[in-house]
Amino acid sequence: MSRINKTQKYAALWLYSQGTDISEIANELKLTDNQIKNAIKELPSKKEPEVKNINSNYKNTMITKSESGKYNVAVMTKAASEIHDEASKKYRKQSKADNNIFKPLG
């Protein structure tokens, strides 16, 4: 069994991240299943961020007081923006609103 080069490894990792089966990846790259499994086991495990308590996460990451302390403001920080982006991605995957939109013919 020959070694897998970096290009093949990156291709295998990308295909695996897209949900392709190991046997399909092996056929596509003309490698063995064991070579693909060895390349994939080096991946760190992915953990999905918690989205349930998203409102409390926003409050902790937003700037809510002005510098003088007299005025209440709402400024979105980079952390709050990232939390919102992850929540919206997860929500878009769950909801299939396109099926509910009426599109008349012609």
Please state the structural category: mainly alpha
Number of strands: 2
Poorly predicted residue ranges: none
End-to-end Cα distance, whole Å, is 59 Å
Q: Which oligomeric form is depicted?
A: single chain
Q: How much helical structure, as a percent, in the residues?
A: 40-55%
What's the number of helices?
Answer: 5
Number of domains: 2
**β-strand amount:** 5-15%
The sequence of SSEs as H and E is HHHHEEH
Task: Explain what you see.
It is a single chain. This protein has a two-stranded antiparallel sheet. The longest helix is centred in the last third of the chain and has 17 residues, at 78-94. The radius of gyration is 22 Å and the shape is elongated. By secondary structure, it is mainly alpha-helical. It starts with 5 loop residues before the first helix and ends in a 12-residue tail after the last helix. The chain is built from five helices and two strands. It has two domains: 6-40; 54-96, no CATH class. Helix 1 (6-17) runs antiparallel to helix 2 (22-29) and helix 2 (22-29) packs across helix 3 (33-40). Helix content is 50%, strand content 7%.
